[in-house]
Write a structure and sequence with these properties.
Elements: H1 2-5, H2 8-141, H3 144-162
Length: 163
């Protein structure tokens, strides 16, 4: 062992080991501080990620609620539109029925008026024909003395018929 203690390689190895141990001893604190800082930074990032995750979940829940509300509102609007369309359809049917009835009554009134006019025209023609036929018959069969006597009688009856 004596030989080993006198060897330069041995002392270089010992010095190297001491140097490495000294370096480890001196570097341990900064390495531990760096590792602690890195751990703290990682913990901070994890906490931030957790906070962001919770915030994202809150936003997701809020948007899902808003979507449900929008769907309900759209369904309500659709139901209202259907009711309004049904009501308008019913009102249009009622208006159409009233219009048809009104036009039917107008047509009936026009028909009645046309019938009355036709009847009046027929009566007027019948009167004209009767007067013409009476004139012809009277002209053929009545002499002047009989005509004068009929005119005198008609004039005597006239004041009684005018009252």
């Amino acid at each position: 062992m004596n030989h080993l203690l006198q060897s330069a390689e041995f002392w270089v190895a010992v010095a190297f080991v001491i140097f490495v141990l000294f370096m480890l001893w001196k570097a341990t604190k900064p390495m531990m501080a760096a590792l602690d800082a890195r751990a703290a930074r990682i913990k901070t990032e994890i906490d931030e990620a957790q906070r962001l995750r919770e915030e994202a979940q809150k936003l997701l829940a809020e948007y899902q609620r808003k979507e449900r509300d929008a769907v309900k509102e759209a369904e309500a609007m659709l139901a209202h539109a259907r009711d309004e369309a049904r009501r308008l359809r019913e009102k249009a049917a009622e208006d159409l029925a009233a219009s048809v009835k009104r036009r039917e009554q107008q047509a009936l009134d026009r028909i009645a008026q046309a019938e009355a006019q036709a009847e009046a025209q027929v009566r007027a023609q019948a009167v004209d024909l009767a007067v013409a036929a009476t004139r012809r018959i009277l002209a053929e069969k009545l002499d002047e003395a009989q005509a004068a006597r009929l005119v005198d009688e008609a004039l005597k009856e006239l004041p009684g018929k005018l009252n």
